[in-house]
């Protein structure tokens, strides 16, 4: 949402102002911003259409803009209604459903979409949030067809933009000096079969591809507790907010390993998290080391409890036999639970 836009953008300040504001805000509020590119694709040349997951309000736009500086954003008209808002935001304003409800004005974005298409056709970079608004919930919000309509209009004009799905992941969204990871996916294939002749069919096909590409990046769960469990186990596997942790989250989400690990003894949870990390970071050579460390820990545990009673009290176990019994009980309970699913 910061700097520079095409004709029709709402920025009242010079581009240099927005760039300086963006750099200062990003450097002050976030400790580290990592970028994961799942495909080696250069996006310096246009036209480029970026479609992004929306998690944390206007902050998402600030961080995305720091990674994709040439992008012009579709932004909520509410952000730029007054002069004060225009000091901080610029882009192509659109009226969202919630904006219409708040203002009572009729929702008509045809002019904004036309400006967006012209910017793309001219070789520019355009950033669209298909969800239309943000939410820190466990699943993404329903995707709107605006990005697909812009893409379809550009294709009808004979222009085939590079379409890149992107996602943003916060270590702790509301926390000052948190780490952030931005994941850029592989380009979306926008070639359509010759049989897809009608406009509605083309729009539906493009919408389906945009949806699938964003969901391939997203880490989702049925509820907030499940998502927190996934994030916690992934952090246990890799403390750095980067590609390995994102891949660990995707693996945990895909195979539902977090369900199995609920209530697991410490040794089992630690070993499972390390195995996930080994696969996520593609460092399979470390697996023997993890197995060795876990085995040594179980063997040394009774002696450690004898020397440091507080450790024994913290874990509530006194011997390796107790540990083995706990692990066996957990495995039987897990098996029984899965048999009822």
Description:
- A hairpin with a 7-residue loop joins strand 6 (162-170) and strand 7.
- The protein has helices spanning 15-29, 58-67, 83-86, 97-103, 110-121, 146-156, 199-217, 224-237, 243-255, 257-261, 266-280, 287-307, 309-315, 320-339, and strands at residues 30-37, 48-52, 71-76, 92-94, 125-128, 162-170, 178-184.
- The protein is built from 14 helices and 7 strands.
- The chain is α/β, with parallel strands linked by helices.
- A 7-stranded mixed sheet has the order 1-7-6-2-5-3-4, with helices on both faces.
- It folds into 2 domains: 15-217, 3-Layer(aba) Sandwich (Glycerol-3-phosphate (1)-acyltransferase), CATH 3.40.1130.10; 224-339, no CATH class.
The ordered string of helix (H) and strand (E) elements is HEEHEHEHHEHEEHHHHHHHH
* Structural class by sheet pairing and helices: alpha/beta
Task: Specify the overall morphology.
Answer: globular
What low-confidence regions span 5 or more consecutive residues with pLDDT below 50? 1-8, 310-321
Biggest sheet strand line-up: 1-7-6-2-5-3-4
The CATH superfamily label of the largest domain reads Glycerol-3-phosphate (1)-acyltransferase
Number of helices: 14
Number of strands: 7
**Which percent bin holds the helix content?**
40-55%
Mean pLDDT: 76
Tell me the name of the CATH class of the largest domain. Answer: Alpha Beta
Q: Please tell me the CATH architecture of the largest domain by its name.
A: 3-Layer(aba) Sandwich
């Amino acid at each position: 949402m910061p700097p520079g836009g095409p004709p029709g953008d709402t920025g009242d300040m010079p581009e240099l102002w927005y760039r300086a504001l963006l750099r200062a805000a990003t450097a002050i509020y976030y400790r580290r911003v990592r970028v994961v590119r799942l495909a080696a694709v250069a996006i310096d040349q246009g036209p480029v259409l970026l479609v992004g997951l929306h998690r944390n309000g206007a902050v998402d736009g600030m961080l995305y803009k720091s990674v994709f500086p040439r992008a012009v954003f579709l932004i909520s008209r509410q952000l730029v209604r007054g002069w004060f808002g225009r000091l901080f935001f610029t882009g192509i304003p659109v009226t969202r459903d919630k904006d219409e409800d708040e203002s009572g004005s009729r929702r008509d974005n045809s002019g904004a979409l036309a400006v967006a298409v012209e910017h793309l056709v001219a070789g520019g970079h355009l950033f669209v949030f298909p969800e239309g608004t943000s939410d820190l919930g466990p699943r993404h919000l329903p995707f709107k067809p605006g990005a697909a309509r812009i893409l379809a209009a550009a294709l009808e004009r004979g222009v085939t933009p590079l379409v890149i799905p992107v996602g943003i992941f916060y270590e702790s969204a509301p926390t000052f000096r948190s780490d952030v990871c931005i994941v850029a996916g592989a380009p979306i294939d926008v070639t359509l079969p010759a049989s897809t002749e009608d406009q509605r069919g083309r729009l539906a096909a493009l919408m389906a591809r945009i949806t699938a590409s964003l969901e391939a990046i997203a880490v989702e769960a049925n509820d907030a507790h499940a998502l927190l469990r996934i994030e916690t186990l992934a952090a246990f596997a890799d403390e750095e907010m980067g590609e390995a942790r994102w891949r660990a989250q995707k693996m945990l989400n895909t195979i539902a390993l977090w369900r199995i690990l609920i209530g697991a003894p410490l040794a089992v949870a630690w070993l499972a998290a390390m195995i996930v990390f080994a696969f996520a970071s593609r460092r399979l050579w470390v697996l023997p080391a993890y197995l060795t460390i876990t085995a040594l820990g179980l063997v040394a545990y009774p002696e450690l409890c004898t020397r440091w009673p507080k450790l024994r009290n913290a874990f509530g176990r006194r011997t390796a036999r107790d540990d083995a019994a706990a692990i066996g009980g957990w495995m039987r309970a897990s098996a029984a639970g899965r048999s009822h699913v």
